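Notebook entry, structure prediction.
Reason for the run: the old model in the group folder had no record of what sequence produced it. Starting over properly, with the input documented here first.
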Amino acid sequence: MAVIHISEADAARDFAGLMARVRAGAEVVIEDGTLAVAVVRAVVPPRRTIAECIALLPEDSTAVIDEDFARDVQEAVELHREPLTPPVWD
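New structure, fully documented this time:
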């Protein structure tokens, strides 16, 4: 991942360009002279391990981890792509 250092003035002047670079995978360090003021980078989506998912199952769950488990998990993910907790601004 590329790290780009820019001034506050340049960040303000071309914020859309800055965001395009972030979306492309860059990390942008915004500086005031030689002082780093902020770092802008893409958000890493939260992920759960299989162990964490299994721990969330109710005790009386009939879930079985077999050769079809990965397919079942993928199907569930595809059916539920909406955010679980929408941001406040929505």
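Summary: The chain has two domains: 3-40, 50-79.
The old model has been moved to the deprecated folder.
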